[in-house]
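The step that takes the researchers longest sounds almost clerical: writing a folded protein down as plain text. Below is the pair of lines this work produces for a single protein:

——
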Amino acid sequence: QVQLVESGGGLVQPGGSLRLSCAASRLIFSIYTMNWYRQAPGKERELVATITSGGTIDYGDSVKGRFTISRDHDKNTVSLQMNSLKPEDTAVYYCNARATMGVVGDYWGQGTQVTVSS
């Protein structure tokens, strides 16, 4: 069974930083595009950042210039460095692995809470 385990969430003041990590196991990490999504109360889940196996990166408009996604193929991890956090960044953040190359697979972590508040 594929597992995605997020860590690093918590409470931070506006303007602060957090680093989320997602450890993936029981999958061929190199064929998966890795994504971070978030869902705030009463809102739909939104894509925050994505990184392909080849390293192509894209961000949601609301986080561009503040968040940085990266992946480590040796450790099978994907990280999200979040800087200049705003109260509107408050949400549950989810790690997602989506298979490519004709393979079927779409997996989610359990989520980690990020709260930005003074």
